[in-house]
Amino acid sequence: MTRTQKAAAILVAMGKPSASKLLRFFKQDELKALIEGARLLRTINQSDLEQIVAEFEAEFTEGAGLLDSADRMDTILTESLSPEEMNALMGIGQEEAAPAGPPPVWPQIEQIEPARLGAFLAEEHPQTAALVLSNLSSAAAAAALLSLEKPVRSEIVKRMMSMANIPEAATRIVENQLRARLLAESSTRDTSAGQIRVASVLNELEKEQLDEMMEDLEKSGTPDLHELKSRLFSFEDVLLLTQQARVALFDSVSTELVTLALRNSQASLAEAVLSSIGARSRRMIESELSQGAAGIAEADIVRARKAVAAAAIRMSREGAFELPTMQSAAA
Fold first, then answer.
1. CATH, domain range 107-186
2. Which of 186, 296, 160, 304 is nearest to 235 (CA)?
3. What are phi and psi of 44, to 5 degrees?
4. How far is residue 20's CA from residue 84's CA, in Å, rounded to a whole number?
5. Which of 68, 130, 137, 128 is nearest to 109 (CA)?
6. Which fold has domain 193-330?
7. DSSP string of 264-325?
8. CA distance 195 to 197
9. Where are the beta strands (DSSP E) in 182-265?
10. d(CA 84, CA 86)
11. pLDDT tens for the chain, residues 1 to 331
């Protein structure tokens, strides 16, 4: 490790309050060197950190181990320096044209499942999470927010509301971390795209056909089957939704579609649906159903049910509610 990297490691180990005071005594070129040194840091174990600290000051040999040094240094810098200081530090506004960098990461981030993005942001500083969500589309940001615990969600929203213009340098730092830690992992481990494609095919099957197909996949030892099951949904699975989810679902589809989907349905399923809609709409649907299904093609009923199921899947992806897994359905 270079001396600059060692200095960056000690600053991060000191924590934000102490490090923030010291940063203002550094010259601009020294701060630039610290940023570059911090970016190259990775996990530092306890013994290595103690050796580094001992070189600077003997009484710091009880310093803590270090993880995600670049992230913490970035947080210290962005929260300690004003936007103008960050601009001056990174050379923003100078006559020299900045070299072209990689394209923005935000379109790729929006493709990540809300629950997975939320889990990642929950481990980050709320200010960093607020910056990330502020750069996403409204739908993607809302879906990620809904996956977070309420206290964390509230803290992030509060910071988003008070967030002023973010220095380009700070945004670039966060983008680099997202590429290295979230998108890189996605490219090697995320199989969600394939699961979505398979689920879209399986969701076109009838309930009996789907059950048979899933049984065959289980017998053949198909990997990640639980994840696939969580993406499957048929009209009959409405019974497994929470009342709140059913209300949201049937509030989003037309009365005509609901009426057609309920033709020839079981009484328990019909009651679950009708209990989730308003009294006036319920009376209208019950009046239509009482006339029977004569003259109505079975294919039209099937298409209506698939349309309702597709609406549930879409709303789940948007974070409105969670779909019940096929395993839950079997239970």
1. 1.10.220.30
2. 304
3. -115, 120
4. 16
5. 137
6. Annexin V; domain 1 (1.10.220)
7. T--HHHHHHHHTTS-HHHHHHHHHHHTT--TT--HHHHHHHHHHHHHHHHHHHHTTS-PPPP
8. 5
9. none
10. 5
11. 677 777 777 777 766 666 666 676 667 777 777 777 666 666 666 777 677 766 765 444 333 334 445 555 566 556 656 666 666 655 555 444 444 556 678 888 888 888 888 888 988 888 888 889 988 888 888 888 888 888 888 899 888 888 777 777 778 888 888 888 777 655 444 455 566 667 777 777 777 887 888 888 888 877 767 777 777 888 999 999 999 999 999 999 999 999 999 999 999 999 999 999 999 999 999 999 998 888 899 999 999 999 999 899 888 878 888 888 543 444 4
Helix (H, G, I), strand (E, B) or coil at 253: coil
Contacting residues for 222 by C-beta, under 8 A, at least 6 apart = 228
Closest alpha carbon to 74 in 181, 149, 146: 181
Residue 326 and residue 319 in contact, taking contact as beta carbons nearer than 8 Å: no
pTM of the model: 0.42
Euclidean distance between CA atoms 234 and 190, whole angstroms: 25
User: Closest Cα to residue 271, out of 280, 281, 262?
Assistant: 262
**Which amino acid appears at position 93 of this protein?**
G
Alpha-carbon gap, residue 177 to 161, rounded angstroms: 23
Question: Which phi and psi (to 5°) does residue 324 adopt?
Answer: -70, 145
Q: Where in the chain is CATH 1.10.220.30? A: 107-186, 193-330
Which residues partner with 212 through β-bridges?
Answer: none
